[in-house]
Structure formats: C-alpha cells, structure tokens
Design goal:
Layout (H helix, E strand, L loop, with lengths): L4 E2 L1 H6 L10 E2 L6 E2 L1 E2 L4 H13 L1 H12 L3 H8 L34 E2 L7 E2 L3
Parallel strand pairs: 1-4
Antiparallel strand pairs: 2-3, 5-6
Helix pairs in contact: 2-3, 3-4
Length: 125
C-alpha cells in the first residue's frame, strides 16, 4: 500500500487542480481515494472522528499534516470508510432504480422528489 500512498514531496509538486492518480477507485463517483504516507494511524483515526462532526476542520487538518490540496482533502474526507457503493436495498419507490442512499427522498433517474409525501414533485432536468 505504501507505493499507492502520497508523500508530502509528491503532493507539493502537484498543482492544486490535480486529481489523485493513485489509490483505490470509488465505483460510485469514479475518484481515486488518496492515501498519505505522512499521516499516522493515530492521526487518521483522530481525523476520521473529527470528520464525523466537522468535515471542514478535518480537511484543513489533513492538508496541514500532509501538504495535500483541497481537492485531495475533499476526496479523502468524503470516503471515510473507503469506496462508496450503491445501496441495492434502496430502490426508488416510483421507478425502481437505485437511490444514492437508503434515506434519499429524490431520484436522479425519474427526477421525482418526495421530501413532502403530500406534494410529490418532478425536478427540472
């Protein structure tokens, strides 16, 4: 896994617009999830706990500790448990296509929104 992890030196050479080219690919969003050589297990555990309550602060802290860009920090923070997967047990009640999460109240496939069950609307496309 170390050959898939970024060192501070590598990160400092990358532009702020660069996306990770190393790491596990998330099948849901297609991003590579960066891993950082300079982030200790203790720091990662602390930041993951912080990420649950204050993701912006966790992103700032991972940037400080690793030297990564904001893009890398966001991707890292949005994947706290590794790659995200579609929840096959959460189909849209209208079209049956998979929802992004099991608690979603709108469908990206049929464009229905049922946040208010008494007023189901079609989202603009």
């Amino acid at each position: 896994m170390d050959d898939e992890a970024y060192s501070r030196e590598e990160l400092e050479k990358l532009s702020g617009d660069a996306l990770p080219t190393k790491g596990v690919v998330c099948p849901k969003c297609g991003s590579r999830i960066p891993h950082f050589k300079d982030l200790s297990k203790e720091d990662e555990e602390r930041l993951r706990k912080l990420d649950e309550t204050n993701p912006l602060l966790a992103m700032q802290e991972v940037r400080r500790l690793t030297g990564c860009s904001l893009k890398f920090a966001k991707i890292w923070a949005f994947h706290p448990h590794g790659p995200n997967h579609e929840d096959p047990s959460a189909p849209c009640p209208f079209c049956g296509q998979p929802l992004r999460t099991s608690t979603a109240k709108q469908c990206r496939h049929c464009r229905r929104d049922w946040h208010d069950p008494d007023n189901i609307v079609f989202l603009p496309g």
